[in-house]
User: What shape does this take?
Amino acid sequence: MSPSRAEDVEDDDPVIAEYNVFITPRQLEQIYLLQYPNRNRSQAYNDRNGARPTDFRLKPQAGFMEMDIGMNPSANFNKFQSLVWGEAIRKAKGNGGSGTFGAAAGFAPTKGGKGRGKHEGGEMSVDQGLSRFQEAVNRDAVFQKQTLGGQILQDEAGNPNYMLGAFRGDELHLTRVDGVVQMRPQFHHVDAITHAETAARRTEAAENSSGGPGATSASTQKQPQALALAQTYKDNRDVENLEALRAKNLLLIAAEEKWTKLEYFDEDEEASYETYHSRLFHGDTKEAKHLKSQMKNEEYLDAISAPRVDPSGRKKKRPLTKKQMERIEAAEDDVEGAGEMGGEVEVEMS
Assistant: This one.
């Protein structure tokens, strides 16, 4: 690009501000960036919009996060379906489950119980709940919440590192993010109905087989036979096998790990402002160490650029050196001068 052209570009896009950049030191507290792909930014989950999270939980080892958002059951609310879903969730929890299904629970089946789950004050049917809906709401027999959740994407080698930026005057403070979570709606209430129906069919089949006319006693039943298991080894270099093994281990961890409850603070609370100023800004900017890059400009460009592949398979020519470029420029000047004088110039390349 010619100097005149570069000046035109600079005039079209002038520098309007400059900032001193600081990187905050790592601390014990972890920072996660929560994204809501299905929610407009103007309708954030907070007190101002009447959508404050009521429960926040985390599985740090498995890397799952969930939160519950309360809903108003007095307007634009399907009372019948909320009672059906509430009953399914109650049964899942009463049988020893956590009310969580899907990947966050390791896709594990619900725990079966010998009897129906107990409910304080006796059970309430769906018909009774419709006639006494407010009482059902007070007894937590109504499904009146929305669950959002997702898997934490940790930093990995080769992937970009996300940072949070906070401005203060002419300073830009960057804080490294420990993980990114895309919070999407979870349908545990729908899964609870499916699991309840499956458990009911399994219980009914067991009762029929044990109490039916063709049932046999435990002593006459066929005894289990010992099987010999042969241990096999797969090539660890197989990427697909490694990915499948990693996913299987993750689901096992998710099935065994219990939820850790977290305390939620709204963005307008004083505690949130205190954490913002103490955590997202460097404590001592005067004593902050200057960052020094270990890479030169050419090395950095090579690191972030994709390698060029010639489809023809021809060997790539080595680029000209600076000395060769100077000789070519000098030769071009001699050629132009010889053209004006009508002479001839010989160019020697080494």
Q: What stands out?
A: The chain has a mean pLDDT of 78. The first strand starts at residue 20 and ends at 23. Residues 16-208+245-279 form one domain. The first helix runs from residue 3 to 12.
